[in-house]
What we know:
alpha+beta; three-stranded antiparallel beta sheet; two-stranded antiparallel ribbon; 5 strands; 44% helix
Amino acid sequence: MTLTNWYGHSQKEMEIATATALWYHRGKPVVPLKWVLLRDPEGKLAPVALLSTDLELPAEMVVVYFARRWSLEVKLEETQAHLGVETQRQWSEKAVERTTPVLLGLFSIVKLLAERVHQQGMLLEDEATWYKKEKPTFRDAVAAVRRLLWQKIDFSTSDIHTEMVKIPQPLLHQFQHRLANAA
């Protein structure tokens, strides 16, 4: 079987085996399962075992659905990390009903604005010193949207207020970049 988009490979040939089995846990009803085993014939990737409760699902689709779940898991992890979904703020059912749609809406707005910034070639990646990013992360997108919004704010200064100091625009942009990534 040839897999596409399999863990950094555009196409990867994998050997596949499948059958059904019964899963039993004491005190629970028996559950029939379809199991799918994937093995790299070159031996470069570790074998993968997948399970499905849908016995009619072809083995190839079990693999496709497994591969698709990663994009959903990344989105969930980033909404948890950056927007507070499933945190202590949401322990009650009413709190979940109120805040989760708003947070997911906020996630969508950030994603759309970041896409616009990216199309303009202005989505800056905050480079980590320990690895090279292949693509911008959601953290980079949040920072880009913050910078975009902060550019719209009038940071004008007034001579009346002596605590106000004019700074060069490149320095202001550097402050904005550092603050956007720090928050």
